[in-house]
Amino acid sequence: MLWILAIGPGVLGLAADNDAGGMLSYLVTGAAHHLEWFVFALMSMVPVTYTIQELALRVAIATQMPYSHVLRVRFGRWWTAINGIVLHLLNALILVTEFLGMTAALHLIGFPWWSGVAISWGLVIGVTAYRHYPSLERLLLMMAIFNFAFIPALITLHPNPHAWQQAFGGTFTSSIFFLLLSLAGNAIAPWMIYWQQNAVWSGNVPSLSFGRKDIRLGVLAQVVMAAIVMLIGALANGRGSALANPLQWLWAAAGPATGRLFALGIFDAGFLAACTISLSSAWMLSEVLHGTPPPRAVTPTGGRSRWIHISTLTIAAACVMWPHLSIGSIALWAQALGALWMPISLIMLIVIGRDIRLMGPLVIRRRRLIALIAIVVLFVTLAALSGLA
Question: What are the distances in angstroms from CA 380 to CA 36, 87, 385?
Answer without folding.
Answer: 23, 18, 9
